[in-house]
Specification:
By secondary structure, the chain is an all-alpha fold. It has one helix spanning 2-46.
Length: 47
Amino acid sequence: MKRCWCCIRIWSKVLSRWKLKWGQLVQLIISRWSRGGASNREIDLDN
């Protein structure tokens, strides 16, 4: 049981770190996409 608990704690730490990294990546992608969409829309409006 002790080993299982250690594994669960380690995995929870790893998963939390991965969630933070993935969250940052997703935010970056969304910000880039939103900026790209805004610029494209502005160009379409100008045309």
